[in-house]
Amino acid sequence: MSEVFSCELLDEIKFNINEPIQVQDIVKSLEALEKIVKQSTKTFSKLGKSDVHDVKLYIKAIEKGSLREKIIIKLIFKTEENLDKFLENTHDWVAKQCKEHPVRSSLVGLVIGGMIAYGFYSLGTNSANSINISGNYNTVITNGAQQLNIPIEEFKKAIEENKSNKKSLSKNAVEFAQPAKTPSGDVSIEFGSDIDSSKNIIIPSKVISDIPKKVEPEQPIEKDTRMDNVTLHIRALDRDDYSGWSGYIEGVFTKRIPIEIPHTIALNEISSQEAIKANVTIFYTQKGNTINQKRIVIREINPKLKQ
């Protein structure tokens, strides 16, 4: 087994609630937090200017009252050189003793709190009020940069290293924050300890109010395009009904999709033919370079014959 090089950083997360919380809600929140921590590898690497191979989450303690979670973040490196480079570049934020035992570091709260704020910011149509969410994200980025004594844009770029996975980050951030949505009202979440609470990263209750209970997958927007004088192949039909027809367009796609026929067209004009010439509108959705044809609407049949 190859040698593991790591350092362990300690910090706290506090949900400012004053009522009991179900165990299953805590478990779901912690599972989401673990996923966020896993996603933080690129951010820690960017800030430390060294390759962090993996990041793991451990729970040191959970205290009642306000729900306080004492967490340990374990940064794992492939080589001792990478570890030493990270510690050299973060010596103002991380004590070198983290190689031997967990040490308290505000870097944990700044990174994880920043990523969660970015996850909320990336919700898009899933967020109820982007002003509160975007305002808090800007505040978190500004405060984080000031505490680390680096340019705001540098800290922002490090947090947004997860841009390619921001949908999953948004989902995990919302699931993590659910214990803050209580029956008696939404509460804030703090990242950091009471040793110097003025430096804590805070997600205010008004932001919690604006995030959903669940991130719903965004529905693709249906688009349409008109095509004239195409060869429409009919592969299923109902001579007595305008529904139940399907087919495809020659030279465009071969997948069988529903055909919609206007009542201005007599069914007997097309029911005896395997293919017809027609002016059509194709409705489809697109994700990246993948086009998913949904239905064909006939506008006119045998267009050339009618000219």
Describe this structure in words.
There is one protein chain. The protein is of the alpha+beta class. It has 2 domains: 206 residues, no CATH class; 84 residues, Beta Barrel (OB fold (Dihydrolipoamide Acetyltransferase, E2P)), CATH 2.40.50. Helices cover 31% and strands 30% of the residues. Strands 1, 2, 3, 4, 7 and 8 form a 6-stranded mixed β-sheet that branches. It is elongated. The model has no long low-confidence stretch (mean pLDDT 90).
Summarize the structure.
The chain has 307 residues and is α+β, with helices and mostly antiparallel strands. The chain has helices at residues 23-39, 41-48, 80-89, 106-121, 130-148, 152-159, 166-177, 205-210, and strands at residues 5-15, 54-63, 67-77, 103-104, 181-182, 185-186, 189-191, 201-203, 223-236, 245-249, 257-260, 275-287, 290-301.
Helical content class = 25-40%
Q: How is the biggest beta sheet arranged?
A: 6 strands, mixed
How far apart lie the N and C ends?
A: 79 Å
Helical/strand content category: alpha+beta
How many helices?
Answer: 8
How large is the share of residues in beta strands?
Answer: 25-35%
Uncertain segments are none
Radius of gyration: 28 Å
| Total beta strands | 13
Order of helices and strands: EHHEEHEHHHHEEEEHEEEEE
Number of domains: 2
Overall geometry comes to elongated
Mean pLDDT: 90
